[in-house]
Amino acid sequence: MATTADMRTGLILKIDGNLYSVIEFGQNKTARAAAKVWAKLKGVDNARTIEVTWNSGETIFPVRVEKKNYQFLYKDDSGYSFMDNETFEQITVPENMIDAPQFLKDGQEVGVLINGETDQPMGVELPDKIVLKVTYSEPGVKGDTATRTLKPATVETGANVNVPLFVNEGELIRVNTKTGEYVERVKE
């Protein structure tokens, strides 16, 4: 069994029959009372966000999670389809279980979190940074590189990303999938 001392960001806990991922946590210590451990939790199998407080040393119930590499195949009415790179088995996942579905492109490698108890998918994580091609952007003007002014651009997945003025249509850019922000221009 695990205790509150084993708490860490990303840990998945079972609370009242539901699964929650730890977003952030901390300790409150007072001079008179025992220390308390608090955690902000995001629902894995529901869209709720809750805060829970335990006494220090109290038992918590983590869920064993495996991360497997899958390849994105396609999107249809039933959801997003992925293929296991080792067994070639296919799974379909609803959109709400994917970190940043607007940045998924065909053939992209992703990490699928699998519940170790039920072998069911719990979520899909994209790489932190991915390279995408700009399919539409207003043309840049020579000399507009001195300021940090941004303009909207559409990438190959259909998502909109704010890019610096010097980025033009047809160029490759690196995008942070967690924040949706432009990182840098990529040379081919």
What are the key terms here?
single chain; 188 residues; mainly beta; SH3 type barrels; OB fold (Dihydrolipoamide Acetyltransferase, E2P); 3 domains; five-stranded antiparallel beta sheet; flat
CATH superfamily of the largest domain: Nucleic acid-binding proteins
Helix percent band: under 10%
Order of helices and strands: EEEEEEEEEEEEEEEE
CATH architecture designation of the largest domain: Beta Barrel
Estimate nothing, just give the exact number of structural domains: 3
Described by the principal axes of the CA atoms, the overall outline is flat
Number of strands: 16
CATH topology term of the largest domain: OB fold (Dihydrolipoamide Acetyltransferase, E2P)
How are the strands of the largest sheet arranged? 9-8-7-10-11
Topology:
Blueprint: E1 2-3, E2 12-15, E3 18-28, E4 36-43, E5 49-55, E6 59-60, E7 65-76, E8 79-84, E9 90-93, E10 109-115, E11 121-125, E12 129-137, E13 150-155, E14 160-164, E15 172-176, E16 181-186
Antiparallel strand pairs: 1-6, 2-3, 3-4, 4-5, 7-8, 7-10, 8-9, 10-11, 12-13, 12-15, 13-14, 15-16
Structural commentary:
The chain has about 190 residues and is mainly beta. It has three domains: about 1-60, SH3 type barrels (Roll); about 65-125, OB fold (Dihydrolipoamide Acetyltransferase, E2P); about 130-185, OB fold (Dihydrolipoamide Acetyltransferase, E2P) (Beta Barrel), CATH 2.40.50. About 0% of the residues lie in helices and about 55% in strands.
In short:
The chain has 188 residues and is an all-beta fold. The protein has strands at residues 2-3, 12-15, 18-28, 36-43, 49-55, 59-60, 65-76, 79-84, 90-93, 109-115, 121-125, 129-137, 150-155, 160-164, 172-176, 181-186. It is built from no helices and 16 strands.
